[in-house]
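Q: Convert this sequence to structure tokens.
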Amino acid sequence: MAKETHKSCRAGRSVVIATSLWLMAGTGFAATASTSTEALPAGHAQQAQSSKKATQKPAPLIDINSASKAQLKTLYGVGDAEADRIIAARPFKTKTDLVTTAGLPTGIYVANKHKIIAIQKTKSSPKG
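A:
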């Protein structure tokens, strides 16, 4: 009879453990669902999505041929010395010239290449 009691205790513990796991999984899902916009009322969900779109506008590209020292210093890894080197080495044909001409470290260039552009000045042809 003691063996039968032991088996029923094991079965009871298994049920308790399974139920606990099921409840924990359910609360984890509920916490995840409540943070998404799907759980918000319709007006609030649209408002949340439109505010996300408004904040995702890309920053304007910085023209390395005409940017001020202060603008250049907003780039990652560019301090006073790097900004001075960039200004002294102008004009650049391409933005990769920052590495080859101005001596900017490759890591700094790679971190900023999506934020910069090298706009060429157009020469006006003489009218005649």
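The longest strand covers residues 62-63.
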